[in-house]
Amino acid sequence: MSQLQLNAAEDLINANERWARDVIKHDPNFFKDSATYPQRPKVLWIGCSDSRVPASVVTASMPGDIFTHTNIANQFHSFDDNANSVLSYAVDPVGVKHVVLVGHSVCGGAQAAIQAAEGGPVEPHNPLTRWLAPLIQLVRTLDLHGLPENEAVDKVVEANIRKQVENICLSEPIVTAWATGNNVSVHGWVYDLAAGRIRELVVRSPPCANL
Asked: Residue 202 and residue 102: Cα distance in Å, rounded?
């Protein structure tokens, strides 16, 4: 490991020490309470693993405010037990009231899916290709002809957000929640990297009849 990489890791530990001291200064019982009482966040954030979109930072949130799950290109696949288990646990027993699916501008996953869709049949020869296969198929249903690259990516990003919201609404945890009177809502948000702002594209509540 290079010295630069070592310094980056050490910098994080040092920054954590400064942050913890600052939190204690403003709320001496914050960490004690965090360890004593169960978490009760009201929001589950399902987002992209992109380092430029950290949920807590871009929403000015504190530990305990947001239950989070991230992956490449903010996907929610029906076959993904990881995402489904997070969603299930967040809805019950944690008790979130809002599930937000968050995509972002200049998404590398969207760019990769566009490039793959322009080629021939996609061979799932590596984990990333297998993961992006549903997004690649979605891209092939969109009319991107003649669009500048940035506009094409924006169109894919928004279509992807809407599709993943649909997938979440059709998932077992949400279908079960709505059937039993839990009015958890599902939102689709897009984060603009160039502006630092979040915009809501879509929101769904039971019975999700408008998909």
From this structure: 11
Asked whether the whole model's pTM tops 0.90, one would answer yes
Per-position DSSP letters for 20-35, written without gaps between them: HHHHHHH-TTHHHHHH
Percent of the chain residues past pLDDT 70, beyond the cut? 93
pLDDT of 86 over the 90 cut: yes
pLDDT at residue 3 tops 90: no
Sign of CA dihedral 31, 57, 51, 46: positive
Instruction: Report yes or no: 185 and 98 within 8 Å, Cβ to Cβ.
Output: yes
199 in catalytic set: no
143 is catalytic: no
Residue 5 binned pLDDT confidence (cut-offs 50, 70, 90): low
Number of helices and strands in the chain (H, E) = 8, 5
Catalytic residue among 69, 104, 187, 204: 104
- 192 catalytic? Reply is no
Whether 50 is catalytic is yes
